[in-house]
């Protein structure tokens, strides 16, 4: 029994570390968030952080997974309009957490190396995002010149590119530009006559 209690405490501590890291990185930025600072917020040593995650890269990969859980938009059962709104809201929320956007962008470049701890995370996340977009925008009457999979790739590429532009120039209106692009690529359904 003690083993189960110990396991539960370990899981709870791991979650506490992830939530704290998410907060610190969101507020202070990826480059200004040290393992020492994250450890201090949780009340552990930097070595204890690595006990739970193995490496700084693994910790940061899990921070992105946790961010995805918080942002989690499950498009199943959503209408085209609801899926659009949810996607744009996630982009709008990203403007409030520049440190997490920087972490995502930095790690995505590093994860191009198949041996990087975040490589599989980015492959899986990209596939799920594209599937979600294709399902959401392909479920209703086809109004785009692009097939749903191509549309999903274009939307994902534009979203990732806009994040980089926004990090360099915070005046870039990511949600506004993405909304306009989605409307151009996949026009909203015309209102139905009652």
TrEMBL record:
Domain of life: Bacteria
Cross-referenced Pfam families: TetR_N
Residues annotated as domain HTH tetR-type: 11-71
PROSITE patterns listed in its UniProt record: HTH_TETR_2
Regions recorded as binding DNA: 34-53
InterPro entries named in the record: Homeodomain-like_sf, HTH_TetR, Tet_transcr_reg_TetR-rel_C_sf
GO molecular function, one term: DNA binding
Protein name in UniProt: TetR/AcrR family transcriptional regulator
Organism annotation: Microbacterium maritypicum (Microbacterium liquefaciens)
